[in-house]
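Checklist before submission:
- one chain only
- standard amino acids only
- sequence pasted in full

Submission:
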Amino acid sequence: MLLKEIESFLEEDIGQEDYEEIVPYTSCKAEITVKEDGVLAGLDEVKQIFDYFSVQYSTEFEDGDRIKSGDTILTVSGAGAKILKAERLVLNFLGRMSGVATVTNALVNEVREVSEHVRVAGTRKTTPGFRKYEKKAITIGGGDPHRFGLYEAVIIKDNHIKLMGLEHAIKKAKEKVSFTRKIEVEVESIEEALRAAELKVDIIMLDNMTASEVQGCVRLLTERGLRDGLILEASGGINRENIKSFASTGVDIVSVGLITHSARSLGFSLNVVE
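Returned file contents:
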């Protein structure tokens, strides 16, 4: 985490308030505990925040560890004013990132019951200003972060196709984009998928289709000799109840927006113990 990021987060939370004029500069010890089971994420960021405040810490955990309700994740010691300044920020990092990692891990485990190669990916439906940490949490939970921004890959979506037409949009992308960047096309019908495959795109996203429709599309692409070298991604309306059905269709990726836009933060607390 960059120094300017830490200071920006702190400015948002505490502004110009000087806790050292309110809270005693007394040395103390505190513990951060978790209130529910999950997958730990955000610990590296929390360490950097405490380093910024010159607060000492110790822990037996690492990001990616399974944690249980009641576990003491971190023990800290230092000036009480410094610890309380950092409290909400470190709890927010742990809660949000662990929540994303936990739901990602649950979905990955569902997929592993039916497939060893299908990846569970996130989307760009992230919290503004916090994307890189949510993407990191997805990775910690065993998922694939997907592209971080528009600059990492070209995705021709429905609105691009409405404005330009499928073939023209793909042609323009191939003319303008470096060979180092993949071109993905979002389609909503088997006909569009076949045409995109014929035009030699790198990835096809089968969007808002039922699992049965996705399976039929995969089968037809295979029968026509268009499947080899093509990455297929299923997206839209995928959740814990139906993800195994989509993972069983023959696609390579299932992308799930709820990993970030609907993940519930895991509960953590910081308590002074002496």
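Reviewer check: The radius of gyration is 23 Å.
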